[in-house]
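[audit] Reproducing an earlier prediction to check determinism. Same input, same settings, fresh worker. If the tokens differ from the archived copy the diff job will pick it up downstream; this log only records the rerun itself.
[audit] input (473 residues):
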Amino acid sequence: MEAARELKILYLEDNPLDVELTRSRLEVEGLLHRMTHLRTRAEFLDAMQKGGFDVLMIDYSVPGFAGLEALEIARALYPDAPILIISGTIGEEIAIDTMRRGANDYVLKNRISRLSPAIRRVVQEAEDRRRRKEAEKARREAEARYRTLFEASPEAVFLIDGQGIIRDCNPEAERLLGIPAGRIVGRSGSAFGFLGRFSAGDAAASARDAGDAGHPSPSEERIDATGPGRWVEVIPGRVSVDGGRGFQVIVRDITSRKLAEERIQNSLREKEVMLREIHHRVKNNLQIICGLLAFRSDASGAGPGGMCLDCRNRITTMALIHERLTHSDDLSRIPFRESAHSLVSERVLSMPPPRRVSFELDIADATFTLPQAVPLALILNELVNQSLRNTCEAGRKGSLRVSLTSDGRNVWVLEVRDNGAGPAPESGADVETGMRLVQMLVEQIHGEMTVTAENGTVCRIRFPAASDFVKGA
């Protein structure tokens, strides 16, 4: 009871002198109060109808009331109100009877010093009872809400104790298992495969699986060993079960989702096979074209033969990219390092032995989309062919260096460097055609190119790493 609280006291007493003595005693005791004094039955009944009192004090013997009738009326109207019986003389049997009829305490008038402590005590006890009732009411309401949610949940819910025994389940759990609750409750979780990890032997592992109460760790389990099979998602959470640690396990049927995922995976596998077959056929068709160009090159003069050879090299380069796709785990991106190594080494080794040059490759482990990889491979093909022409001067040991690096700002840099003296005058037309093609391809990948003379020829091409868009596509 708070010290500053003013108590509203109703005192039923026919003797005004006793009332004044009681009021004075309470003031001496420092009890903050406001007392309403009643003498008659009519006044008492009217006050009882109005209410609003913190404690009731009733004289044991009041004219107009038979025995403890006033006590019985007060208790009937206010079952939780603290009531004190005040008497000039009262025996043990009468005291017990008053307590049995609902009085919280009694005080003899010749021991009025007990009144203030008695009032404080019965008021505090009444407050404690009120709080306990409110707490109990709140608990019952919470249990009722939980039971409503538990019973109405669209997902199966199992309550499992620390020994792995199923203590409760909801109607959806019955539908999931196809058996009534009576055949589920009381059995070990190990009787049902998807609840096996909550059995007594796996209690520690189950606690780790459950994680924090607000962050359970779900798992996917198959609940049918035969037939098409059903899949569930098991979401455990730690709860208190009969005063001990236990688990509330929510089980969600995900069979439809698993079947949809399986259909998607099958469809993706079919499309992957189809794409690989397409790239394989494209590569084969390009190789056929290369064979025809090679035949034309052998049957033509020097000029047309050289043009056919350049065209064949370009088509071979495109075929190489499609071949890489057929062997790639990811059909959306192509590893460029292997393609660049194959392309450069093939071009260098295709030269007659007296004209071969030494070469060095420093290609980053990068992957590009098809709209990037094909133009980039064609650019590399043209630049390597031009460098091989530049380094084929008689009596000169040629060298070639190709690198692909990142500048750290999401930009790639392709560099082709040779020690040649530049293109020969008689090959100007071929070189001009090749460089025009390079310029067009550089624009496709949104890049920029610079050509400088640094103890030979250096061609640098900078292009953004995320350039999936191709101009004109």
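[audit] rerun output stored. Observation attached for the diff report: Residues 363 and 404 are 5 Å apart (CA to CA).
[audit] end
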